[in-house]
Design goal:
single chain, 234 residues, alpha/beta, 12 strands, 21% helix
């Protein structure tokens, strides 16, 4: 496995000939014993930069997980044509389609729920059938390829990273949240990969149309599913 490589975020200020770093969110000041290079392979220092937002991961030499170690769960309610297009784009990966009580039923679905429980319940039903070490959740109206999902898994190389989500851009729309996501959402407007954590630039993962988890990849420990299964609009 390649060592973790981290580079300083372009917004991090480097002072005192590389011995003082100021930046990140919340604002962090780090004083070093010796001058620091812009990129480090020092595991302890790299994790410190990532945790404080002083740095971002360098993934050029990091391979994605093998395709047979990733399962994609697609929760769906109706919109059969979109489900077909979504699954076709994920050729080469194991895909579990969960039909959340559609009427008429979705042809070819792996799991069909008798009662409409919303996206959370559908994801949990699919998650219960996952046997691979990594899982991705992709809503049926999201356009993403198998190669793009596998590339996203490179971020899971670090042992302290459990979930990763990409920049999700809407296809346009007149509603206020669609316009906001296109112009100001941290998941689309931040020039570097933002860490989602309290008090950070991206405190939560925002998604178009205010739907959480439209597209995420996660390390799967095969424990109890923990998606909030309270019914929401599908």
């Amino acid at each position: 496995m390649n060592p973790l490589r981290v580079r300083l975020d372009p917004r991090t200020r480097v002072l005192e000939d590389g011995r003082l770093l100021i930046g990140g969110t919340p604002l962090t000041v780090q004083r070093l014993r010796r001058p620091v290079a812009e990129t480090t392979s020092d595991t302890k220092l790299g994790h410190r930069w990532l945790a404080t937002g002083l740095g971002v991961p360098v993934l050029d030499d990091t391979p994605p997980v093998p395709p047979d170690q990733l399962t994609v769960v697609v929760p769906a309610h109706g919109r059969a044509s979109r489900v077909s297009a979504c699954v076709a784009a994920l050729t080469g990966l194991k895909v579990i389609v969960v039909d959340d009580a559609s009427d008429p039923p979705i042809d070819g679905a792996t799991v069909r729920l008798a009662v409409n429980g919303g996206p959370g319940a559908a994801r949990n039903a699919g998650l219960a059938r996952v046997s691979t070490p990594y899982v991705a959740f992709v809503d049926s109206d999201v356009d993403v390829s198998a190669d793009a999902l596998l590339a996203l898994t490179r971020h899971l190389h670090g042992s302290d990273v459990a979930v990763v989500a990409p920049r999700v851009r809407g296809t346009g729309g007149p509603r206020w949240w669609q316009q906001y996501d296109a112009a100001f959402s941290p998941s689309t407007s931040d020039p570097t990969p933002p860490q989602s954590a309290p008090a950070h630039r991206c405190p939560t993962y925002p998604a178009p149309a205010s739907w959480p988890a439209r597209l995420v990849c996660a390390r799967w420990a095969h424990s109890t599913p923990n998606y909030d299964s309270e019914k929401t609009s599908t």
